Amino acid sequence: MPKKQLKGKVVSDKMDKTVVVEVRTVKIHPRYKGRFRRDKRYKAHDEKDQFKIGDNVLIEECKPISKDKKWIVKEVLNKSKMEVMDKVKKEDKAEVKEKTESKDKVELKDEE
Fold this sequence. Notes:
Order of helices and strands: EEEEEH
Shape: elongated
Number of helices: 1
């Protein structure tokens, strides 16, 4: 029997080697035929503590690791926007620093 796989978003990474993944499903009411959302949280094993809040991940069922942990994170589907923005800010800061240093060098040469 194949193992179950679910897609969800990491909502907590405060525990050691564990992340909490929230899986959202859309169901249809049997009588009224209206759609409604169901959110369920799963604790999943993260061996290297590499997944951060906001990452969309794929989790797979495995043998129980602890009382609540019966899932393992297989892969990142896409990184959180916060992490990407932090990288962009660091790159921008480095570029600004390089430009200011080059301007300072030009000003020193002009003074001499």
